[in-house]
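Action item from last week, closing it out:
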Amino acid sequence: MPVIKVASYNIRRAVGIDGRKDLNQIQQVLSEIAADIIALQEVEMVPGIAGVSRQAHALAGLLGMNYAYGPVHRLKFGSVGNAILSKYPIVKETKHILPDSRDERGCLQADIDAQGAHFSIFNMHLGLNQVSRYRHLKYIILPIIQDSSSPTILAGDMNATPLMREMRMLSEYLHDTFQHNSGIHGNTYPSDSPRVRIDYIFIDDKSRCSSFRIFKSEASDHLPVTAAIKIPAVQF
């Protein structure tokens, strides 16, 4: 049962708490974390512009990882969305639309082959409307996860604290890896003075978490979270 280190990080287009856009700071944080799989939210991808604006492509290249990208908000040129970076091959990627008349969101799914350990990771950035968050989780994402025979990880910025209705509902089906927190930090937002925990990594019954940690950094307005997860060898 191999141990996979997973991270989730809302990078806010690489804009730090000081208001400056600096992708190098994000890359340094991710290098320090040294995760095998990274779920990123608010990633900017503008075709034809190298470096700071082709962020998923640039970070994957700098870290020597594969990547998948799912646009969520369209810009005049390019988009902002979710990205998954992986040291292992990405067998398949699927973009799930989370509809909302005012604030449409998305969830990016990647199926990973980690040297015989096959699993799926769902990377999502939920919206600000609680009713929509609940519906997106209960009626779109959870049914997909429950139909899967592979171990599943759900990570991202949920824009909801643990005691909110949608998170209590989610915890009935999946396990919050924060239960294994070994660090000194307990909240993830805002990064300069964290008051709430809205960034998560969940697993299903097929996997086990051995440790969890929140990293301190002001490269974004969120703090990155990591979990060491034991994945059984299961074929797709």
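Closing note: The chain is about 20% helix and 35% strand.
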